[in-house]
Amino acid sequence: MEHRNDNETAEGTERKPSWIKVRLPNGREFWDVKQLVEGKHLFTVCEEAHCPNRYECWNQGTATFMIAGERCTRACAYCAVKTAKPFPLDPEEPQHVADAVVHMKLRHAVITMVTRDDLPDGAAAHFAQVIRAVRKASPSTIIEVLASDLNEKPSSIRTLMAARPHIFGHNLETVERLTPIVRFRAQYQRSLRVLRMALDCVDGKVSTKSGIMLGLGETEDELFRSMDDLLEHGVTVLTLGQYLRPSRNHLPVVKYIHPDDFVRYEEVARAKGFRHVASGPLVRSSYHAANFTPEADVLEAINEDLRKAGEL
């Protein structure tokens, strides 16, 4: 199905406002990261999801790894990641990701995943293996994960959280009213419960994070309600960014949010109680993720639990 709106030109490309500017690759670091990713047969959400910041991040020598393959079992109307029958999990992927983290000297690694509804555990055990491999190779690296909803299976969430990521992220993506349109087979309330379950699995000893795209037709009241919902479920880190249409086969942009409004939304979110907020037209879940560091007591609690388990 093709979607058209008033922002679209006759050629099918959307007219973007002046504040939507994407940097092009121009540094050695960009090509170093590209060579490393391709050499290790890794996937990044930077490329698979057509992230507008990929050139900037790669020029800075950072990337967000996407594990469990490049094929997703869901077909969300906003997402550029390929939907198809997935390939089997790569048993060498955990070590490849760990090697890349060491090579890039990452102090903060962000790892996300495709949704794997074809697997009983949603690839939770595989994700846990990746986390443990990264920690073994680079013990001082902050590990941030951006997980699927894992079909809200308590056993899968426990498996993932047992590997003790420092930051657990799961994106709400949009407001409740728009969720059935934007997120295929996802549920707004389920996502909130998953965030709370991840927190409760480790007795609150993790920072939880979520992101919302703007410009899909949400109202400000709906956005503020979603902020409240996230806070009520223990989320302390929030990202807000402009939805950008990956292709003509995806949902159109209803509105381009002005940068001044993003500043205002950040102020509202902070006033409501979020500990860290990143808000701007090109902000994505992992954009400048290293600017946030979990609370010292959370880090120490995680390290203490890992020492007791003999994993640190």
UniProtKB/TrEMBL annotation:
Name of the top EC class for this enzyme: transferase
Main location: cytoplasm
GO terms, biological process: protein lipoylation
GO cellular component: cytoplasm
Sites where the protein binds [4Fe-4S] cluster 2: C72, C76, C79
Free-text cofactor note: Binds 2 [4Fe-4S] clusters per subunit. One cluster is coordinated with 3 cysteines and an exchangeable S-adenosyl-L-methionine.
Keyword tags: 4Fe-4S, Cytoplasm, Iron, Iron-sulfur, Metal-binding, S-adenosyl-L-methionine, Transferase
Name of the featured protein: Lipoyl synthase
Membrane-crossing residue ranges in chain numbering: none
Pathway assigned in UniProt: Protein modification; protein lipoylation via endogenous pathway; protein N(6)-(lipoyl)lysine from octanoyl-[acyl-carrier-protein]: step 2/2
UniProt subcellular location: Cytoplasm
Residues reported in the UniProt entry to bind [4Fe-4S] cluster 1: C46, C51, C57, S286
Single annotated GO MF: 4 iron, 4 sulfur cluster binding
Species this chain originates from: Akkermansia massiliensis
InterPro entries (alphabetical): Aldolase_TIM, Elp3/MiaA/NifB-like_rSAM, LIAS_N, Lipoyl_synth, rSAM, rSAM_sf
Necessary cofactors: [4Fe-4S] cluster
Catalysed reactions, semicolon-separated: [[Fe-S] cluster scaffold protein carrying a second [4Fe-4S](2+) cluster] + N(6)-octanoyl-L-lysyl-[protein] + 2 oxidized [2Fe-2S]-[ferredoxin] + 2 S-adenosyl-L-methionine + 4 H(+) = [[Fe-S] cluster scaffold protein] + N(6)-[(R)-dihydrolipoyl]-L-lysyl-[protein] + 4 Fe(3+) + 2 hydrogen sulfide + 2 5'-deoxyadenosine + 2 L-methionine + 2 reduced [2Fe-2S]-[ferredoxin]
Domain of life: Bacteria
Matches recorded under Pfam families: LIAS_N, Radical_SAM
Keyword field contains Transferase: yes
Residue stretches making up the Radical SAM core domain: 58-275
